[in-house]
């Protein structure tokens, strides 16, 4: 019998032990969960420092770092959970979106584990994984809810109608919000990863610089769409023009004004979506969800408007493997298992 013939009709467990692997960017992450909500191990080996001197992630360096780290991260996860591979019921892995070479390391490793231990192999969308992090944060959370998806690659207001039906109400028409944070960081001379450094600098600044509003009144698309490219360019032009004129520029004010412009619109549109749908729960997902200004502003607004807010810990907003286990568990229940011809995809449609 072939590997997949043996797997596809396997008896499902109520609370399977899932090992999740995430290698889409610069974090080699391996986690183990019981069912979809209880984290029993969670390891991350980051290659961020290796990329810092280049100002951004270098795909080839990321792939090599994953190759070196993936076995160690897995061994560490098993050790910290006090489990062996014999205890694992399924292997979930990020199939995309992300850097192809980096993804391939995780996918190949996951295939090898699934084949060797005769386990279901569950391909997981990184984007759905980010959204599923909310289930780890609130063990009672059930759809429907609205989620702000704000990462380095995606920016969207998503309507989670059920565990499986995710509708995009609006998304960015150009850059992602995290990408804008990273580019602004660069022009301000801050190190990669830019987002947390812009946040740190913004703490000493004032929201005093007027920046353009995104998507003017003539915009024909969804009212939940975003555009970050104009904002990013305005900040870059502001900094370059000040530098050329030899003016003293207050970087903290630039960071603070940018942060307000980039984040306030996420909050506005999320609450508009809550009103539009009548939903009463808002979740946050993706790396920018770790931003303190966003978290504080959302907490306050949710309180005033009587909205339940689900804020995953910062660690579960940025890339991690527990979120891959959480989404992997949902796919496990549908028996969305893959054969060993699974390939990585640089782009996935959700
Ligand atoms: O979700 P994530 O870890 O990876 C992707 O799937 O893209 O998101 C990474 C993005 C980066 O652009 C990073 O600068 C941004 O999230 N980010 C932040 C913060 N922490 C991470 N942006 C603003 N404030 C932060 N504290
Ligand atoms: Zn991510």
The set of bound ligands, ions and cofactors reads:
5'-O-[(R)-(carboxyoxy)(hydroxy)phosphoryl]adenosine, zinc ion
Helix-strand makeup class: alpha/beta
Number of strands: 10
Q: Major sheet: order of its strands?
A: 3-2-1-4-5
Strand content: 15-25%
The oligomerization state is: single chain
> Helix segment count?
12
Mean pLDDT: 97
Helix content bin: 40-55%
Series of secondary-structure elements, N-terminal to C-terminal? HEEEHHEHEHEEEHHHHEHEHH
How big is the Rg?
Answer: 21 Å
Task: Sum up the overall morphology in one term.
Answer: globular
How many strands, which pairing sense, and closed or not: the largest β-sheet?
A: 5 strands, mixed
Outline the low-pLDDT stretches.
none
């Amino acid at each position: 019998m072939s590997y997949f013939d043996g797997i596809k009709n396997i008896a499902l467990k109520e609370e399977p032990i899932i090992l999740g692997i995430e290698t889409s960017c610069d974090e080699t992450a391996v986690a183990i969960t019981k069912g979809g909500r209880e984290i029993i191990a969670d390891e991350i080996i980051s290659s961020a420092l290796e990329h810092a001197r280049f100002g951004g992630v270098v795909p080839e360096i990321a792939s090599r770092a994953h190759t070196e780290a993936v076995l160690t991260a897995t061994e560490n996860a098993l050790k910290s959970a006090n489990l062996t591979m014999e205890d694992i019921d399924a292997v979930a892995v990020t199939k995309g979106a992300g850097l192809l070479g980096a993804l391939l390391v995780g996918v190949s490793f996951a295939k090898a584990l699934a084949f060797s231990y005769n386990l279901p192999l569950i391909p997981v969308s990184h984007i759905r994984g980010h959204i599923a992090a909310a289930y780890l944060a609130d063990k009672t959370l059930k759809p429907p809810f609205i989620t702000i998806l704000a990462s380095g690659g995606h920016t969207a207001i998503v309507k989670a109608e059920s565990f499986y039906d995710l509708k995009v109400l609006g998304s960015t028409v150009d850059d992602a919000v995290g990408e804008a944070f990273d580019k602004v960081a660069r022009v301000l001379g801050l190190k990669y990863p830019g987002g947390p450094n812009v946040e740190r600098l913004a703490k000493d600044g004032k929201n005093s610089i007027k920046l353009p509003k995104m998507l003017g009144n003539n915009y024909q698309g969804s009212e939940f769409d975003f555009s970050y490219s104009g904002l990013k360019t305005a900040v870059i032009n502001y900094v370059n023009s000040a530098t050329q004129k030899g003016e003293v520029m207050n970087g903290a004010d630039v960071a603070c004004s940018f942060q307000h412009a980039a984040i306030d619109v996420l909050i506005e549109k999320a609450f508009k979506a809550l009103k539009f749908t009548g939903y009463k729960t808002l979740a946050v997902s993706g790396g920018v969800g770790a931003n303190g200004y966003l978290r504080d502003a959302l907490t306050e607004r949710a309180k005033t408007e009587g909205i339940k807010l689900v804020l995953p810990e910062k660690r579960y907003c940025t890339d991690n493997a527990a979120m891959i286990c959480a989404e992997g568990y949902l796919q496990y229940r549908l028996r969305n298992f893959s054969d060993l011809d699974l390939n990585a995809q640089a782009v996935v449609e959700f």
